[in-house]
């Protein structure tokens, strides 16, 4: 069983914020599969039926705030009896320009509170991650919390939408092949 987990914050007020690109990619995956959402056995939502018909993949959206994501991820892993190395976590990254995609088979949290929570709760960093850039040329004079919780500007939204679709395609590639192939095609 593989899990694709998109991080974000629950609630309508956060739907188009920079911090919710993980949710946006999961929504794109579910739309692609002509699927929908239902509650999981914990603080998370899952796609209604197995993704891509019998592929053994579940799409997950934690319904806790970003810095508590680890609890929801652990509950999803327990529900589906999956190992951490069978997960792909999708997150925003302020250190990458808007729309840049970076896939890694494992690694550090890199200052991302959602990844920090997952690593802390699971006790391992052994899971794949797909980072999607939300940064600009200079964030040195901005409060990062305010920045990530702001909606995309219209110009940024126009830039990010095609990259959400590209990130969706990277997830589909991860389902079909191996990490090395995803890195070669999408990084």
How is this fold's topology laid out?
Elements (H helix, E strand, L loop, with lengths): L1 E5 L14 H12 L4 E3 L4 E4 L9 E6 L6 H12 L6 E11 L3 E4 L8 H10 L5 E8 L8 H6 L4 H23 L2 H8 L1
Parallel strand pairs: 1-4, 1-5, 5-7
Antiparallel strand pairs: 2-3, 3-4, 6-7
* Number of separate helices: 6
Q: In one word, what is the shape?
A: globular
CATH class: Alpha Beta
Q: Helical content, roughly?
A: 25-40%
CATH architecture assignment name: 3-Layer(aba) Sandwich
**What number of structural domains do the residues give?**
1
Order of helices and strands: EHEEEHEEHEHHH
Which stretches of 5+ consecutive residues score pLDDT under 50? none
DSSP, total strands: 7
The CATH topology: Rossmann fold
CATH superfamily: Peptidyl-tRNA hydrolase
Strand order in the largest sheet: 2-3-4-1-5-7-6
- Beta percentage is 15-25%
Mean pLDDT over the residues: 92
Head-to-tail CA distance between termini? 25 Å
Radius of gyration: 15 Å
Structural class: alpha/beta
Largest beta sheet, briefly?
Answer: 7 strands, mixed
Short description:
This protein has helices at residues 21-32, 69-80, 113-122, 144-149, 154-176, 179-186, and strands at 2-6, 37-39, 44-47, 57-62, 87-97, 101-104, 128-135.
What does this structure look like?
The chain has a seven-stranded mixed β-sheet with strand order 2-3-4-1-5-7-6, with helices on both faces. It is globular and about 45 Å long. The chain has 187 residues and is of the alpha/beta class. The longest helix has 23 residues, at 154-176. The chain has one domain (2-186): Peptidyl-tRNA hydrolase (Rossmann fold), CATH 3.40.50.1470. It has helices at residues 21-32, 69-80, 113-122, 144-149, 154-176, 179-186, and strands spanning 2-6, 37-39, 44-47, 57-62, 87-97, 101-104, 128-135. 40% of the residues are buried. It is 38% helix and 22% strand.
């Amino acid at each position: 069983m593989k899990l694709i987990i998109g991080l974000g914050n629950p609630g309508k007020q956060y739907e188009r914020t920079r911090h919710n690109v993980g949710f946006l990619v999961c929504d794109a995956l579910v739309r692609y599969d002509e699927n929908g959402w239902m509650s999981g056995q914990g603080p998370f939502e899952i796609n209604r039926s197995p993704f891509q018909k019998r592929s053994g993949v579940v799409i997950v959206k934690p319904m806790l705030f970003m810095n508590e994501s680890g609890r929801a991820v652990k509950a999803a892993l327990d529900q589906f009896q999956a190992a951490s190395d069978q997960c792909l976590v999708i997150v925003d990254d302020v250190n990458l320009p808007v729309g840049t995609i970076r896939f890694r088979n494992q690694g550090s949290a890199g200052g991302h509170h959602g990844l920090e929570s997952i690593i802390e709760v699971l006790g391992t960093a052994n899971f794949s991650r797909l980072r999607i850039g939300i940064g600009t040329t200079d964030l040195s004079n901005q409060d990062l919390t305010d920045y990530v919780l702001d909606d995309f500007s219209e110009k940024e939204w126009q830039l990010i939408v095609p990259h959400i679709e590209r990130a969706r395609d990277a997830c589909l590639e991860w389902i079909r092949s191996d990490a090395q192939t995803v890195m070669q095609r999408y990084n």
